[in-house]
Structures are given as C-alpha cells and as structure tokens.
Write a structure and sequence with these properties.
Number of domains: 2
Radius of gyration: 23 Å
Largest sheet: 7 strands, parallel
Distance between the termini: 56 Å
Shape: globular
Oligomer: single chain
CATH architecture of the largest domain: 3-Layer(aba) Sandwich
Number of strands: 13
CATH topology of the largest domain: Rossmann fold
Structural class: alpha/beta
CATH class of the largest domain: Alpha Beta
Order of helices and strands: HHEHEEHEHEHEHEEHEHEHEHHEHEHHHH
CATH superfamily of the largest domain: Glycogen Phosphorylase B
Helix content: 25-40%
Number of helices: 17
Length: 450
C-alpha cells in the first residue's frame, strides 16, 4: 500500500516536525485507506491555504496535549450573533485562568477576522463529500489527542467533520443547535443529521421550540442552553421607567440584524408613518441584505453599527422601547425556518442588560413573539404602520414601563452567564445538563406549532 502523502491542506503555522503518538497511530490507518487527493483537490486546498487566517500553532508541545475543537460555519467574532454567544460561553472571565488548547475549525468567512481560541483554520468545503472531509480533518489533526468537540451545525460540512473527529479520536461530541437547517428547512439531510445527533453525547438547543421540534423528529433528548447575557451588565435592581421627554422624546431603538430583505423593506415602509426617529444598533453592512440609504432616510432610521456590549447596555436603557424585526411566515420570505424555529439571541440579551420593553415586529406565532409574551417583557405587532404606532404609545405608558421593566429584571438575573463555561464543561462530561437552571427558566413555556 502506498504511504499517505503529505497534506496539501492549509496548516496553522509553527507545527514543525510531527511527533508520533497514540493518536497518530489511531488515525494513520484511516488516512492510508482514503483515496489520494486529485490535482483539483490540491489546487483548491492551496487556494484555501492562501485565504485562511492562520494563528500561531507552536506554543508549547501541542502534539502531546489534549485539545478541544470548535466547529462552526463562520469565523467567531462580535459581528454576528453566533460568534458573540460562542465567545461568551467559551472565553474565560478575566479573573480566571484562560481556556487553553482550543482549535477552531470553520468553512467560510463572511464577518471578518476570527477572534477565539489558540488556533483556527478555515477548511475547504466538500459539499458533504465524506471521503474528502474525513481526509481533510484527519490530515489536519493527525498526531494530536482530541478531548471533545463542540459543533454548531448549520451546513453539512460541520456535521461531517464532527463525525470524522468523533470516530477517529473517540472524542466526546456536543451538538449545539442554534438555528434550524433540517426540520423547517432542508439545508441538512435527515440521514446525516440523525447520525450526527446519535454520535453526540450531549445535545443542546437555545430555546424550547427548537428543542421540541428536534426531539419530536429524531426521538433523542435535548437540553437547553439559551443565549446568556454578561453578568456584569445585568442591573441589580429595577431601572426607572423611560417616558417621552428630553433628548430622547419621540425616539426609539432598533436592535440586531435582518435575515431577510423583506423584513428590512417592510419595516422601513411601516416606520414612515410612526412619527418617531429610530436609532439602530446592529450590523448595517450585512453581506446578505441591502440597506438602501433612501429607505433608511424615509423611515428615519439612523444606523450606529455594532457597538460594544458595555455601550449597548447604557444606550438601550434610555429608550422607551426596542424594536426587534422577525419573520411573518409570508410565502415571499426566503428564510421561513428563521421565523419558524429561530429565537434571536439579541432578545434575551436586550431584556437582561437594559430592561427596556421589546417591540417585536412580525408574526405572533414566531419564537420571538412567544418569548416576549411568556416573560411579559414586550408585545408583538405586524408590519403595519398604524399598529406599530399604537404599540409604541402603549409601551411608553409609565405603568407599562414599570411592569415590563420589573419582569425583565427578574428574567435577566436567570440568564446570567456566571459559570456558563464550567456548566458546559461539566454537562459534556456527564452527557446531560449539569443542573436544571435553564429548565426552571422556561417552566410553563408554551411551545406551539406556527
């Protein structure tokens, strides 16, 4: 049998000569059994090597230490919700020892630099080609000991890579489902998703609707890990109500991103008659949605872009309400699954750090609408100018402000991120949730089909 050829994959710098280990012996046979890469394979790998951002991979004896692997679609940074939440969970607080030996694997770049872990790499997409994906992963990690894998599944490559590492290294696998790509969407085939979930020793979902949908379809238990908020930014008491006065008279806030062009276009049209100016805190440079300057001007939306969470907390507290757009289940929408089974992480974040009432604009059967109704922290109206204006007036009422800010204060403390990294670590080791803190948060939560 011909010996395995040298990897043509992009490789983190500083590896030097690889040392043989038990992990090397375990993966060598698997590598030898795989077909060798074609000329096109090598050209594509070289292109990815040129484009991939590679951090130092030489500190310490990486070959002999156990590593943890994070697998996601995109780079991890503060420009999109998944990146913000994963960083919050995996990064250690300043007063604790830093997390070491985290290797981040992704398959595309949409949001800029990667900002998490000791090493990171972008692997070439295989489109679900199992042989090619297995070869790429085994060549990348050969000679190392992988302790556990955390995967946020969104495309087929993340699942295939996770399965490859679990099978080759015997690593514990944790599936953390944040957005649906199987039940209400068809991005990931049933057979692959089932295999991935079966190989996962711990399965997590961010909210009850998503968990319920996957448990019903695949018959496997899931635990909850919601979008937690920075404990340092959660107020320790109920903040005073905000009424229309001073510099913020006639103003409101808009938070987060738009995942469908129709959301932005319809919101702008509806806000033209609201009589208010809107300050937008979120990514207004999305690669997926076009934000027309003319539409922004007509809707009186002033974009501030992405700001630090410390500033965001201070800013949001001075508005009488925060607008959060979502889907409507309209056939014209492209991202049906987002409206059906996704809960924007900015909703629990905004409620926890600002206590400001939330105005969800979209369908009343969305996850966003059910969340604000269950916790009593806002209301939902359709993309209709008259109804939006009436809701704005209701939310600026002083009694409504007091009630909803009190509800948000109680909810916010339960969503604190204190000890969340340790909670995840223990849960993966146990193969179940380490405690019932998140089950208690959602006790009595109504999970209804859209």
């Amino acid at each position: 049998m011909e010996p395995a050829r040298r990897s043509s994959l992009p490789e983190p710098e500083g590896l030097g000569r690889r040392h043989e280990s038990r992990a090397t012996a375990r993966t060598a046979g698997a590598l030898d059994r795989l077909p060798h890469p074609t000329h096109n394979d090598r050209l594509r790998a070289k292109l990815d090597a040129f484009l991939a951002w590679k951090s130092d991979y030489a500190k310490g004896d990486a070959n002999q230490r156990e590593i943890d692997v994070l697998i996601t679609t995109n780079e991890m940074n503060d420009r999109h919700g998944t990146g913000v939440l994963i960083k919050r969970i995996l990064e250690r607080p300043e007063h604790t020892p830093p997390r070491r030996n985290l290797f981040c694997i992704r398959f595309q770049n949409d949001w800029g630099d990667h900002d998490l872990g000791d090493w990171n790499i972008r692997l070439p997409k295989t489109g679900g080609n199992r042989v090619e994906c297995f070869r790429n992963v085994l060549q990348l990690l050969r000679g190392r000991k992988v302790r556990q894998v955390l995967c946020v599944p969104f495309q087929v490559d993340e699942l295939t890579a996770s399965i490859a590492i679990q099978e080759a290294f015997g690593a514990r696998l944790c599936a953390y489902v944040m957005d649906d790509q199987n039940v209400a969407a068809d991005g990931i085939p049933d057979e692959l998703m089932r295999e991935f979930l079966q190989k996962s020793s711990l399965r997590l979902a961010t909210h009850p609707e998503l968990r319920s949908a996957y448990e019903r379809k695949f018959g496997m238990p899931f635990s909850l890990l919601p979008a937690v908020a920075p404990d340092a930014l959660i107020p320790r008491s109920v903040l005073p109500p905000v009424v229309d006065s001073g510099n913020y008279s006639g103003r409101g806030a808009l938070l987060g991103s738009f995942w469908d062009q129709s959301w932005f276009d319809r919101l702008c049209a509806a806000l033209e008659t609201s009589g208010r100016k809107i300050d937008w805190f979120g990514n207004h440079r999305s690669p997926f949605v076009e934000f027309s300057d003319e539409n922004l001007r007509r809707a009186r939306i002033r974009p501030f872009g992405i700001v630090s969470e410390e500033r965001l907390a201070m800013e949001l507290r001075v508005y009488p309400f925060i607008i959060v757009p979502t889907g409507t289940f309209d056939p014209a929408e492209k991202n049906y699954s987002v409206a059906s089974l996704s809960l924007p992480g900015r909703i629990p974040l905004a409620a926890a750090i600002s206590q400001t009432p939330l105005l969800v604009i979209g369908g009343k059967d969305t996850c966003a609408a059910r969340f604000v109704k269950h916790f009593g922290i806002g209301e939902t109206v359709p993309y209709n100018g008259v109804e939006i204006r009436a809701a704005m007036d209701r939310l600026t009422d002083e009694r409504t402000q007091l009630e909803m800010r009190g509800n948000a204060a109680r909810m916010g403390r339960a969503f604190s991120d204190v000890g969340i990294g340790e909670w995840l670590e223990e849960s993966i080791a146990l193969g179940r949730a380490a405690d019932g803190r998140f089950e208690e948060i959602f006790a009595g939560y109504a999970v209804d089909e859209p």
